[in-house]
């Protein structure tokens, strides 16, 4: 293939990123498929830096900075180094703002020392960003070569708020071309791999963020989510991912794929190595009154009563629904085992769990995809054509460029009128789902409907590159606008997660998926579950997420390591 | 013109409505142009019924029912009678549910007597509904002959909530064909006229509701608003109209024009003869947790702190912005006088008022209309074609059916992709407007941005039938999703509202509008102003509306009479 304009642009950007990593933080090429131990072994990080970055709990790290146990400079340098290592083994970064981050950290340390108080709730904390959140003075290419010269005039609103809250912005992370994939590969930065097994995908579209967090190159970051993009990679990489409701967190100033599509809004999706990280960043952002900066942000402050579960008897004796499958694709054995484990843990903690029957997931799936792709590909074309960069149609390594995987087949563009008809259909489906949720009050024994719903994040764990399908288990909650969490539970254990024979299948796709399962391929890979509540119940979801997390986890256990 | 299928359907429906009015409530034809005094003079209502229906303050009426000073049956019968009279002189009704209303009122009286308490915050209160809110067992034709046989299987969610709160549903009110007009005329029910002067329009699209309220045939009702449809008729008829933010009040189960268009959402728009009516119904609906019935309703309970103006120093020494014109159409003299009167009253009450310069109203206007009409007329066609009913292209009495007024010219349908580009443009305009609002903090002297904005509801008062233009002064707040109130201020007085000569005009349209003004045409017609706040500040807006209302009104003055 001859090297055209877009190849040159991409090469230059990759070299620039490479040059941003100090020589003393580089390591020699490695051949392990599980690369999680490399930061601890490579000798780049000091023992203090390893201690800092081995933390999972964001609240502890913030406290250690606020009490000057560790300076922000020490913490930031530790995460910059570990992010640099993570990048060298997973290709997770798109930007390294190490110099400005270390300078900012020193300023924050100085402020704390002079004033005896923190600048805000995120004082001194390095926070990573998916390559959609604009940072003033830099382009946000989002994997498109044609966007490499579009320099941001302002920080995205959420980045402004993070900075005002004391956060240190130090890296941005990789995405798939067009974003509308659950893997992470593009023509600018190439492919991000799963640190648990580099032959597997970390998921997408916030795949760079998830790989970085799993490597403990970050403890807290922002992904985004329109169909599972924060939750799926979290599940694949053993970290926590959060999809709030539309416009709960400020989107303004983030770049996007299919921009202007507002029927199913992309949301800011916090990701972390701990539940505390998701809670802290959500509260910090809401406490900054984002509606004063983003015209679409809901005027809905952090709800203390919601977090105290005032509508859920304070979190005592909750009743969870559990959906074992969605009626279209039956989950692989480790996913079902994770659900059983969570059910058992919750019951042991005094809660109850009742079955939830899936409802019209196929129809919701069809409507959602019809809405997303209503432009018939015009948005992608507008982003690709300036440099002649090709559309990626398969994420299989070495795929024939003309091969188009099933869920990426081109669609006919729709008229605005046709789009309106889809909105009507979606509204009806949302009403039917709400009524079903409310109707569970006859079965819970609490007088309330189910407090939250447990279900798979995906029918599988991290799969080999190019093997993901559409995000059926996550996108439904985007369509219904139900907030959802991905919570890590366990890891694939071939001795118990054996192949289960099945005689009946929902569909040929279901049968194909069934045949994909091989315990040896997925050995040791993380498995999460999804927790879902009603629209705009973010605080209650985060509180119930903590209850689920406490129920399934021993206190000493750290995440992802 | 030969009488085809649609004419027969329309005639049958009108006759059915006529038959629903008891003979003893009918009056002989009248020739006055101002028909407001007819209920008091016609002899149909008893003196007690006149006393009941002369009230404007909803809180007083509710108290009188709750304390059994008046029974709900007495109140309901009084309003049924007065609504029947109002209909005979303004053609404001589409449905008269008198029998079921009286039955329900008697049940509520019985409940109160037996239990010594009310069923809910709207106990025994008759509430009128625009002909968009479905009532179980009845069609909601919304002015289309083809919808006359579409019988509702359920009440609209907001109707369910009103009933559960104790309201009595007794009438529905007229609308324009297609709804997208600021007048009220359709092929089923014909034209609604303004009770202050029947040669003038009551406005639209909630024109039936406004005419009924002005006649005191209702004290509280629900209109809707996508571009001014609750505020403009309120302004034209001397009553109060409220446009909340998108999805603050539950929409589900209401029928609509351009249904599925969600970029600029139609909202439930309460209308009343008093500010207390708007406050009481909004709180009653929110206290019923509408998000448990409407999947799109915001989970945002009534905000007591917001209503206490906790972010606006408790309502002491507020600073209002005032916009005298929008830079496209200069308001007629009485509209400017109403603004000056409000400014003076607020300053006399200790508040300050600073000028606000309009910003890109023309661009917002263009984007809004492009979004509304993105279907190129396909929705109208789908509603009209089943019966062959013609599209109304002009609301001038006796207009040539082929004449199409300027703001109703057909548009080309847009693709979904093109619609997305309009969303991007709108988002940027909303951001610029928000930043401008926030930036006023440098000029208010309070340390805060302006607390609310005063502006015209329209550049004119109620105009002769067929003379309205697009709703430039109201639709901008729909596009920006800023909640807004229309508050009646004064009436046109030819001795002071004289023609003002102008040498410069914003445009030929502006000049044409200028020439329309003739004090004698508009003599005695109501004039309102608009009050606007930031998105989802409904409670603060209602509280500040009360402050404005108190400042301009003597306590003894009643509304609309």
UniProtKB/TrEMBL annotation, chains A, B:
The active site is at residues 130, 205, 229. GO terms for molecular function: hydrolase activity. Keywords: Hydrolase. InterPro entries: Amidase_dom, AS_sf. SUPFAM superfamilies: Amidase signature (AS) enzymes (SSF75304). The keyword DNA-binding does not apply. It comes from the Eukaryota. It holds the Pfam family Amidase. Transmembrane segments: none annotated. Residues 74-542 form the Amidase domain. Substrate binds at residues 179, 205, 226-229. Belongs to the amidase family. This is Amidase. It comes from Gloeophyllum trabeum (strain ATCC 11539 / FP-39264 / Madison 617). The lineage of its organism: Eukaryota, Fungi, Dikarya, Basidiomycota, Agaricomycotina.
